[in-house]
Amino acid sequence: MQQSDPSQITRERKEFSAALPARAISSTARSSLLFLLALLPFLGFLVGSTFVNQVTPLVFGFPRLLAWIVLWIILTSCIMSVIYILDPQNAPAPPDEKSRP
Amino acid sequence: MNISLIIIAGTGIVALLLGLHARRGKEMGLEQWTVGKRGFGAFLVFLLMAGEIYTTVAFLGGSGFAYGRGAAVYYILSYPCLAYVISYWLLPSIWRYAAEHGLITQAGFFAKKYDSPAMGILVSLVGIAALVPYLVLQFKGLGIIVATASYGTISSEAAIWIGALLVTAYVTVSGIRGAAWTAVLKDVVVLIVIVFLGIYLPLHHYGSFQAMFAAIETAKPGFLSLQQSSRGLVWFASTVLLAGLGFYMWPHTFASLYTARDERVFRKNAIILPLYQLILLFVAFVGFAAILKVPGLQGSNIDLSLFRLSIETFDPWFIGVIGAAGMLTALVPGAMIIIAVATMLANNVYRVVHARADDAQITRMAKLLVPIVALIAVFFALAGNDTIVALQLTGYSFITQLFPALLLSLLPTNPATKVVAFVGISVGSAAVAVLGFGYLRLEDLFTGLPAIAYEINTGFVALVLNIVSMAIVGGLLQYLKPRGPAMIETRQMH
Q1: Inter-axis angle of helices B403-410 and B74-101, nearest 10
Q2: Measured at the alpha carbon of residue B230, what is the angle toward residues B224 and B231, in degrees to the nearest 5?
């Protein structure tokens, strides 16, 4: 159970920041940025495919639609790493985090 | 007895020994048997989660679908990516709640969240409805693999029986730990075999990927883009979205996420898993390579394309290696599915009926159910005539019906009461049963829509009906409810 301590700290940190209006706003802005980023793969796969639904011209020897989908698989991974880095939940929480102003 | 059969049999024995070994030094209580005492680190959780996509669906079904339906196979590459994006937020909150309440099944999660044992039973039934076709397709794949790799010495029927026995044996003995450690073996072997086949077969038969795709385009123009006539863009988008939302709704996947030690594991995995499933690309290459080399496979025989092409290309010993890899892709998910079904029946149905049963009794009951569940799947595998992908998509149509109720239950205040969630899941599943098995087609219900509308995946239509019915019932209940303090009180309860 010791392992889940970071999440508890995060929760406490969240409650703490909710108490401070200025902080709350910036964290809302940040989490909506994360959601916007997360929306991109959906657009890429579901909507984007409509515009590249052809075989030729081959892209790197691949059918065009397949090349598009492979591109988005790689982009999804990149987007998820950006989200991971930006998300304060994943920041290593030093023990004195809670007492910081 | 030929060389390829010996290799397959040897792999089966190794898998069994690994399963037995995994048990060592562990007391097999209910929590240990089902969720490994919630002690799995990032690596094992990763394998259990990733293993979800490296089933016979990928191995035989994926190549078969590429062979028979062309570009439609791109859906297999796409939907897991969307699922991983969602998983970043979805899985940690599920895990946290499950760990807090010591839950071991998916049905238990719903029952707790909605404070209703009846909900647990409903979710178990939907889960089982979805898992049976999924288990059937694993056994079907096993049958194809062993029968083909033994060059006909073992009949497909006999192979299905042998596979079922093997799964039952190590599931009974080792539970989820057996599956996790066999998953390690499986992923290594499958990864090597699939990547090798996906590169070697196109290059060997066509010279280069470009040449292969150009040749297919000449022979079958447009086959490698989505075509309105078979499975077009609307089918693609609705199927990808349906399967993407349903990905983590599978009871065995849901339960396997309980095995994690902490929640950060899931957020990390969301980065790597999309790249890991790029390997499915090579599966598609195998199917594409087979299009012009072993033409003429029809109906459910498209699932044989990987093996037909391999037999024309390789020596028997290597067919044995491919067969061994294929067998593992069926055994590991098969084991996880059986555990999930047996645990749900014991824990969320049997326990509700026999309220006084203790954990030891439930564990015994769950283990007793393992061979019964296997037998049911064997029966359907021997009787049915569907392609692997068709079976998988039927399962997805059912299982995604759980998504709306789950999502709402994770919100800080759940807007859906148990009645609303119950109605949504029931309506959605009923719609899948009616539409999915072809008793009624969309064309019969709504005439005069543009042709493109009829392409929508029926499971997706059911999902929409599910959500709409929830909104209607929720609205009605809200409207009928007596105004005043009573309302506030009920609101707080949920």
Answers
A1: 50
A2: 70
How far is it between the farthest Cα atoms of chain A?
Answer: 60
Let me know: does B494 contact B413? Beta carbons within 8 Å.
yes
- Angle CA(B377)–CA(B299)–CA(B331) in degrees, nearest 5? 30
Query: Quick check: B367 and B390 in contact, CB under 8 A?
Result: no
Residue with tokens 């290597």: B318
CB contact under 8 Å between A45 and B268, yes or no, is no
Q: Are B391 and B131 within 8 A, CB to CB?
A: no
CB B477 within 8 A of CB B417: yes
Q: Give the pLDDT confidence score for residue A8 in this predicted structure.
A: 53
Question: Please, are residues B34 and B255 in contact by the beta-carbon 8 Å criterion?
Answer: yes
Tell which phi-psi region holds residue B208, choosing left (phi > 0), alpha (psi between -120 and 50) or beta: beta
Domain borders along chain B are 3-396
> How close does chain A come to B264, measured CA to CA in Å?
7
Q: Is the CATH number 1.20.1730.10 carried by domain B3-396? A: yes
Say yes or no for a CB contact (<8 Å) between B213 and A81.
no
Q: Which residue of A has its CA nearest to B240?
A: A46
- The reply to whether A14 touches chain B by the CB within 8 Å rule is no
| pTM of model > 0.90 | no
Name every chain A residue with its beta carbon within 8 A of the beta carbon of B71: 63, 65-66
Q: What is the pLDDT of residues B267-284, one digit of tens each?
A: 888 898 888 888 889 999
Q: Could you state, in order of their start, the residue ranges of all structural domains in chain A?
A: 2-89
Q: Bridge-partner residues for B260, per DSSP?
A: B40
Element (H, E) at B173: helix B156-206
* Each residue's pLDDT tens digit, B65-109: 899 888 888 998 999 999 999 999 999 999 999 888 888 788 889
CA nearest B73 in A: which residue?
A66
* Contact residues of B toward A, CB < 8 A: 71, 74, 77-78, 81-82, 84-85, 88-89, 92, 96, 99, 208-210, 213-214, 217, 221-226, 233, 236-237, 240-241, 261-264, 267-268, 270-272, 274-275, 277-278, 281, 284
Nearest-CA distance A61 → chain B (Å): 4
